[in-house]
Design brief:
heterodimer; A: 262 residues; 0% strand; B: 287 residues; mainly alpha
């Protein structure tokens, strides 16, 4: 784990050195992040022009949800998506051979070696928005809720990583799966709203199939005190299971890959 | 060979009927090629469809929750009329949407556009045919999906007045022309800058609000609603939807259709102007 973090830090450093040469990209990405946030907040403004609460959520809690949504989306775009896209590309071209020859654990290596630095603007903007929303909720925030939020966010992040890894690992068998990732992006958009407003089948899909809700709605519910301890424990268990399963799938995928490239 | 020969004669010598027929042939050939190409990536076509379906379902869920929180109705809409609005919007949006703005960046940067410019046929025809091919293929999945969603959400359609039904088809065609021309023109921005993603995001955000996707336009707060009224975006989606769910008065429907036609003509004119400037610029870079 320490080794993985050390590797990740090294790759981020390299990426920062590379990216500072393209500062106009920072401007473009910032525009995009602001537009994304504006769209989300504008949507809230339209909705709350007609109602005081949405499925029991007051405006300040929904603003917090948008903040978490933006933060988590930024974190995925920063660390998970670029690494997984490169993985799929290398499975297709065969360049993965060179990665597998390196001494570090292959799953760790493919997961940390590509980052998209400027997506951190989304993380920063989302965090700022979350902070502003929390200032409104202020008085009711105890250390217990902060701890629950952190745990829920970590569990949600772990599940999202495991799902991405599993989807990308499918490339070992089906080669061209880049479109599979579009499924995640499409469904992630639905995480901008409380998952409880959706009809049962969609709620189920967003909770269990592509568990977007675990990374967005659930952490915010932990902050506002709406989350039951049982749900939090369940989220932690699901996260651990997802990590183990994706690891097993990765191993199986590697075995399939060696067969193909031989 | 045939194309080249015709070009050598010069466009002026081709009689109008012949030009129309050869354009028809171009469309037939491009359409068939696109269908064949897209059939290879059937799963990708379905995955795209997921976005088409999910967007309206999300906003339908949001507005149903708002209606539930305000005692059943919001601005004259209840869950079932919202369902009618958003299911219709899903179909109209499928008819008019394009992905051209995302395609152009790669086209210009990687240079794959060069052979398309060299052809004697305007490259937009290939794009239109490609767009129509995707829609023809996905219709077979979209219609059953819409039917299943109708069972789940139980939309309340009003009876469609005959005039609105009559106007619906031309308004869909005009919406397609308008949106295609606007988005193709904006896509040409890729000739001037390789970083078009910010522009694309901005356009998509504006379109979301002002074309009636975030909310039916009457539900928008005032400054936005006034903006939606004077800008062309509502004619890309909201106007055909409002015809189909049977809301406007006959006079308003005819007036709307005329305004839509004017916007479509203006958009095509803008496309021709910007296209000429873009090609000149491309030639300058390509040397």
């Amino acid at each position: 784990m320490i080794e993985a973090l050390r590797l990740f830090a090294a790759f981020v450093r390299v990426a920062v050195h590379r990216e500072v040469a393209y500062r106009a990209n920072l401007v473009a990405q910032t525009v995009q992040s602001v537009v994304g946030l504006g769209t989300a907040l504008g949507g809230l403004a339209v909705v709350f022009a007609h109602t005081a609460t949405l499925a029991g959520w007051p405006p300040s809690e929904l603003v917090a949800l948008v903040g978490v949504f933006q933060m988590v989306g930024g974190a995925i775009g920063f660390a998970i998506q670029p690494a997984m896209q490169r993985l799929m590309e290398e499975v297709r071209t065969g360049a993965l051979d060179f990665t597998l020859l390196q001494p570090a654990d292959s799953q760790v290596l493919v997961s940390v070696r590509e980052v998209s630095v400027y997506r951190l603007t989304d993380v920063a903007l989302g965090a700022a928005l979350l902070g502003a929303a929390l200032a409104r909720l202020g008085a009711r925030l105890g250390p217990g809720r902060i701890a629950a939020f952190t745990l829920a966010l970590a569990a949600g992040g772990a599940v999202v990583y495991a799902v991405w890894l599993a989807l990308a690992t499918c490339a070992f068998w089906w080669v061209r799966v880049d479109n599979v990732l579009v499924i995640f992006e499409t469904l992630y958009d639905a995480g901008r709203w409380p998952v409880s407003i959706y009809p049962g089948w969609l709620r189920g899909a967003l909770t269990f199939l592509i568990p977007v809700a675990l990374a967005t709605s659930v952490p915010v519910e932990a902050l506002t005190g709406a989350l039951r301890g049982r749900t939090l424990a369940l989220a932690a268990v699901v996260a651990a299971a997802a990590l183990v399963l994706s690891r097993l799938l990765w191993r199986a995928g590697l075995r399939a890959y060696s067969g193909a490239s031989g | 060979m045939k194309e080249g020969g015709r070009l050598a004669q010069g466009p002026g010598t081709v009689p109008l009927a012949g030009a129309a027929r050869s354009l028809w042939d171009v469309y037939r050939a491009e359409f068939r090629t696109s269908v064949a190409v897209q059939m290879q990536y059937r799963a990708a076509q379905l995955i795209w469809l997921l976005g088409t379906v999910l967007g309206p379902v999300v906003y339908l869920a949001v507005w149903s929750a708002v209606a539930a929180a305000s005692g059943g109705t919001v601005g004259g809409y209840d869950r079932h009329t919202f369902a009618a609005y958003y299911l219709t919007l899903m179909l109209v949006n499928q008819v008019t949407f394009t992905w051209i703005m995302y395609e152009f960046q790669g086209r210009i940067r990687e240079g794959s556009f060069t052979p398309l410019i060299l052809r004697p046929v305007h490259p937009i025809h290939g794009d239109v045919a490609d767009n129509l091919a995707h829609k023809a293929l996905t219709l077979a999945v979209l219609l059953p999906t819409a039917a299943a969603l109708a069972v789940a959400f139980r939309p309340a359609f009003r009876g469609l007045p005959p005039l609105d039904a009559l106007l619906l088809l031309p308004s869909l065609v005009l919406a397609f022309v308008l949106r295609f021309a606007v988005e193709w023109t904006l896509a040409l921005a890729a000739f001037w800058t390789v970083r078009t993603s910010a522009l694309n995001g901005l356009y998509e955000g504006v379109l979301l609000f002002l074309s009636g996707q975030v909310a039916p336009l009457p539900l928008l707060p005032q400054p936005l609603r006034a903006l939606a009224d004077v800008l062309p975006f509502r004619f890309m989606v909201a106007f055909p939807v409002s015809l189909a769910v049977g809301r406007p008065l006959p006079a308003a429907a005819v007036l709307g259709l005329s305004a839509q036609a004017l916007w479509a003509a203006a958009a095509v004119a803008a496309l021709l102007v910007v296209w000429r400037a873009a090609v000149r610029r491309y030639a300058a870079v390509g040397g």
